[in-house]
């Protein structure tokens, strides 16, 4: 079975520093019906309000993803033995036109969604999650596990501009794409524009686990709360690398000190096993602020962590669907 599925380049035959860099050294896939999980780049940072550069994220994450191997060392999950996974390339973008980019990204992800594949994406700034939601959540809202230093639920910037990387989840709630009652934000911290910055999110019903609360209750209790909030419904995972302390991930546009460690973040992603996961992304890796490449390595590693839990969830749903067609559900 496994031999029929796309596999990463064999590091025993082709050394990790050789070859054309794709996500996880997987084959490039042009026919979207050939994959169950589509690894996608979204090289766009037109929603960035401060330090730009995340448009270069997908290329560097692809490069550093050559460090990933085939099997998860804790869970034992071997994603490439479960499902067809491939690198479907980058969403088309327009670096000088925000609205055109949102349209093009949505269109690309709609094609992936219609083909029946689940997207795991590398941004790009955090606004890219909005057109992804417009593509994959238009039939029913999704819940979300959201790692971030910022709630990204502000209203407008620079006058009345509704689309920045500080606003995607307010728009997603307004558009009925994101169910706020099934949304949990982890790691929120840092100074705010005004004391009422989080009022919209709280009033909408989003569960905010501020960094200070996370530091108090720890990984296990946070995971319990995550499970309580998102339940069994379709759930998306969005991982902004600025959720991490900048000593682990300095290469990002809006760093905030006092953040999550890489190990804590990995433990939390591993703890999402068994949820009804329908996609995910890693955003805000900004290579111009990442001279060592470490933030891109962190991004690639979190993408692999996501891939493992999402592949397992998707494969289990498939098995259930094939045994009990009445319960088939995307
Ligand atoms: Mn964010």
TrEMBL record:
Residues holding Mn(2+) 2: 126
Q: Which cofactor does it need?
A: Mn(2+)
- Tell me which domain of life the UniProt entry assigns to the organism this sequence originates from: Bacteria
Show the CDD domains listed in the entry: Agmatinase_PAH
Which Pfam families does its entry note?
Arginase (PF00491)
Write out the residues that bind Mn(2+) 1: 148, 150, 152, 240, 242
Q: Keyword Cell inner membrane on this protein?
A: no
Note how many cofactor molecules are bound and how: Binds 2 manganese ions per subunit.
- What keywords were assigned to this record? Hydrolase, Manganese, Metal-binding
Q: Which GO terms describe its biological process?
A: putrescine biosynthetic process from arginine, via agmatine
Q: Which GO terms describe its molecular function?
A: agmatinase activity; metal ion binding
The cross-references to NCBIfam families, in alphabetical order and at most eight, read: agmatinase
The text of the family note is: Belongs to the arginase family. Agmatinase subfamily.
Return the protein name.
Agmatinase
UniProt source species: Paraburkholderia fungorum
